[in-house]
Structures are given as structure tokens and as C-alpha cells.
């Protein structure tokens, strides 16, 4: 391999490593990279959302449809429910943040839900 080919390959490996680190920071290291379509069909949306590659495609689709706030809202609710809060004040502040971000009228990422809820 010539020196130019070596440099390109080295840069590719560095970028790939950085991309993998970013995905692990976002999703967590325990999250599988990919999942087969049969498993998504069997397990449903939860399986799709718990794997890196399918959720990236799903987010891309939501961004095209201008409805990515739904995925962000779902993800924040999942984190809210699984987090252990040190105080009720901390939990209330997090709940208020979720309300202000997704549920209050004219919020930045207002989700489209029935107002009776």
C-alpha cells in the first residue's frame, strides 16, 4: 500500500472509531448495533428503538416527516422512568422540563396529542 493509501486508511479508522464512540455515548455501550427485521416485527417498536442502526434510520425518517419530536419525547420519558432521582424536587424539575419541552402550548418540540389528555 502506498503512503497515500495508508493515510486514507488510517483516517478512515480514526473517523470510524470516533463515530462508534459518539454512538456509544448517545445510546450506551450495551445497545446492539443492529437487529434483524424479523426481530423488529416480532418485538415491535421497542426493539427498533433499542438498536443503533435501525433507530438512526427511524430518526432520519421522522426528520423528513417533520415529526422527530415524537422520538425525542419517547426517549426522554424512557429516561425519566428509568432514572433514580435523589430527591422529589429533582424528579419534579425533570418532569417540568419534559412538560415545557414537549407538552406545553407552543413549546419547541410540541408533540401532537389530543388536548383532552
From TrEMBL:
Domain of life where this protein originates: Eukaryota
Q: Where are the transmembrane segments?
A: none
- Which Pfam family would be a valid example here? RGS
Q: Which Gene3D superfamilies match?
A: Regulator of G-protein Signalling 4, domain 2
Domain RGS: residue ranges: 44-107
Designated name of the protein: RGS domain-containing protein
Question: What organism, scientifically named, is this protein from?
Answer: Phascolomyces articulosus
Its lineage reads: Eukaryota, Fungi, Fungi incertae sedis, Mucoromycota, Mucoromycotina
Amino acid at each position: 500500500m502506498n503512503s497515500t493509501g495508508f493515510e486514507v486508511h488510517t483516517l478512515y479508522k480514526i473517523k470510524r472509531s470516533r463515530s462508534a464512540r459518539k454512538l456509544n455515548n448517545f445510546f450506551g455501550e450495551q445497545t446492539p448495533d443492529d437487529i434483524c427485521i424479523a426481530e423488529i416485527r416480532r418485538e415491535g417498536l421497542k426493539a427498533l428503538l433499542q438498536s443503533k442502526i435501525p433507530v438512526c434510520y427511524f430518526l432520519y425518517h421522522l426528520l423528513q416527516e417533520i415529526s422527530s419530536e415524537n422520538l425525542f419525547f419517547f426517549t426522554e420519558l424512557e429516561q425519566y422512568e428509568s432514572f433514580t432521582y435523589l430527591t422529589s424536587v429533582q424528579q419534579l424539575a425533570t418532569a417540568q422540563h419534559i412538560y415545557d419541552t414537549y407538552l406545553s402550548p407552543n413549546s419547541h418540540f410540541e408533540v401532537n396529542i389530543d388536548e383532552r389528555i
